[in-house]
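User: My instructor asked us to take a sequence, write out its structure as tokens, and then describe one feature of it. I'm not sure where to start. Here is the sequence I was given:
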Amino acid sequence: MKKHLVLGALAVLALAACTKSETLELNRGNEISLSAVSGKNLTKAADGYCNNNLPASFDVWAATDSKTYFEKETYNRDALTSTYKSTVARYWPASAVDFFAAQNYGGTPTFTASGTTSLAFTGYTVADNVSEQKDFIYAVTKDITKPASGAADINFRHALSQIEFRAKNANQNIYVYIDGVKVVNVKNKGTFTMEKSTTTGFHIHGNGVTADSDTRGDDRGLWSSQDGTVTYSVSFSPALELPVDGSVKDLTYSSADDFNTNSMYLLPQNLDVWKKADHAVPSTSGKAYFVLSALIYNVADPGHFNPSTDVVLWGDNTSGTYKPKDIAVQLPDGMKWEDGFRYLYTFNFTEYGMGGSDPDSGDPVLTPIELTVTVDDFVDVADKEIKVE
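Assistant: Let's start with the prediction itself. The structure tokens for your sequence are:
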């Protein structure tokens, strides 16, 4: 039976970054203050911010009567009361107020020219170092007057996409070590605009990264002017071994402490993907693709790996010792990332498929062993009579 010892299909699963609504409350009273349920305060968490993982602070902008009421007031949380208050007290006016709040936003925040109905962050740039990337959250609440009773809600949403990686090996004929993964040639800059409507309810699925009044709700933020070409990478030391039983191995962390540093927060975008048919060499294509750094052994006795005797199929031996080597993996055509979703990509090592490519040549990483068989015909010899005595 012919077996293709290659890297198989790329699987992806998109999940909402948080399963609960992320609601903060405006307190009653003359002074404008914010309160929230107590939770952890992490710089970068696996799921980003949620009700059980609230930010320690965030910035607030306000407008009333089509005029700026205040700009960038930082509201900090009091550990004892779980109340967010500004260092400069702000008070409720007689007219209704529009609030815009954000954390980890970057760029230059400015009210739009159309009567301060929206707030734009121009020149937002995703950090090059994955460990420095943070969950950019935002909220809008409109037409709020001083509450007579109860509280007005501010619902935070996630402005970025979260990217994580996994791998599995269901092929007992190979043994795999992985020490890193990359996202190549993606955009890292853009302008984010808080839209004109209140971000009410749950953090729900968006409808693309371009404005479309027929399909995209006004209560979602909008990314525009995405630009740049950047590669993001994470590495693991020591390299991770893939079990040969087909079970999934997380690549976004190698220990509990690394989970936060290896999860990517990237710019929502439509990806211009590299295709083998159009660009033979991934590294010079300028298109987006994934890179998996892997060391692959052939297993002579399936299910019984022996690194001292089994042969290396793919690896870098420039130092005299085999180490993982980059493999380019083609992405699905039409792939895109949307704000507020976590994408889980799984690299599958199987006994079928076309496999990955050498980033610098475009050649297949592994070539299946195939045999072309010919068989000689039986040749008749001369008819000869043999006398038996």
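For the description part of your assignment, you could build on this observation: The first helix runs from residue 259 to 262. Try explaining in your own words what that tells you about the chain.
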